[in-house]
Design a protein that fits this description.
The chain is 39% helix and 13% strand. By secondary structure, it is α/β, with parallel strands linked by helices. Strand 1 and strand 2 form a beta hairpin. The longest helix is centred in the N-terminal third of the chain and has 75 residues, at 3-77. The protein is elongated.
Length: 445
Amino acid sequence: MTALSRTIARQRCSRPSFATAIVIWVLAVATVIVVELQTTAFREATAGRESIALLRARWAARAGIEATIARLGFATTNPDLTDAFAIELEMEDIAMGSLEGTSYIIRVSTEGDDMLGPADAHAKININTMSRESLMLLPFMTDDVADAILDWIDEDEDTRPFGAEFGSYATQLHPYEPRNGPMRSLLELEQVSNVLPDYVRGEDWNFNGVLDANEDDGDEAWPPDNADGILDAGWSAYLTTKSVDGGLGESGEARLELPLASASDIGSILNTDSDQSEAIVNLAILGTVSMGDFLRTDLNTLAQQNRMQPSSGAPLRALSNEQLAVLLGETTMGFQPGAPGRINLNTISDDALEYVAEIPLNTRDTLIFDRKSRSMGYTSLVDLLEVPGMTRDRVADLYDIADVRSNVYVATCRGRDERSGVEVEMVVTLDRSTLPIIIREIITR
């Protein structure tokens, strides 16, 4: 074979090898592309499933909130006036639910237990109403912190002896101004001079009122905790900014404003005679008495003190306890919308009561002892007149700081997609001082 023949033969033999290499290279590239497409598709499918699971969990949580709003609204317009805890039992009844592969639960950790249902904001003390004496009773409280809190809340720029006003905050690395008005959340406390977050939050670092797994594992995850199965929520266990005063009457109807009412209006609500009704109207218009004064002093004495003479000339009959209860529960002398709320004597804990300096020790002990025997609670402050040792003066003194009704509830609702285990938590503040119920705040995490 000639040299030319051998060269041609070699070229013919190499062509299939080259073509095979090209084919293998193309297949390899195609395989990489297919694998990448499959990986991308898998990731997108996984992300899609996670998004769907997240959405399902979110709507499960929202379903729990909507159920609570509906039950709270119904209980407000259809109250059980014989049971102070009826509204809490109503909301506890729907605190767990499931629908189409999802579930929700509404709970709060209190005194070492998980309780079903939303938290009562009036079971805590509104910090915007606290005196210096009450603040000083809180754990870790010092003179400078108490004064700084009061300076933060008050409207003036006058610095208390140990307090802090504009000048103290203006010299910070990142300057800011004090509120000089009511605090809007407990988070604001951490901006007050010398207040440490640990004081405010304790172990409840996310402010949801529930003992989460990372808040009961020692030092394994933030925040640090003692892993004792009990939520130590610091000051947030006793304080709030969410409670509001006033609102609807016990019946769920708008309260009658006494300075604007007629004697016949009052008579129809209180079942008082004409002289009594006229005296109440005149006292309200005169503006020299408060609602608490009706508890402290009988109607005839109030009229005499204000130089009022009944039309009939006869002494005024005293209001019965039933009439007093309706007066307190269905009327008002007028109130400021959104004013900080009073504590609820039925739901505030024994521990929290210790931080209300305005309640004397003997009165507090009497309340703690007596309410243990009342399975249906106090339906009116007038009920306290039946408690041994509780005088009209002592009950009247409670009126400005305490009530037996709550306007605001905080629902911590956790929705769950059962198939994936994905969870979404909503912390929602519900205000029933007006109808329809108002969502004051919603936090989703």
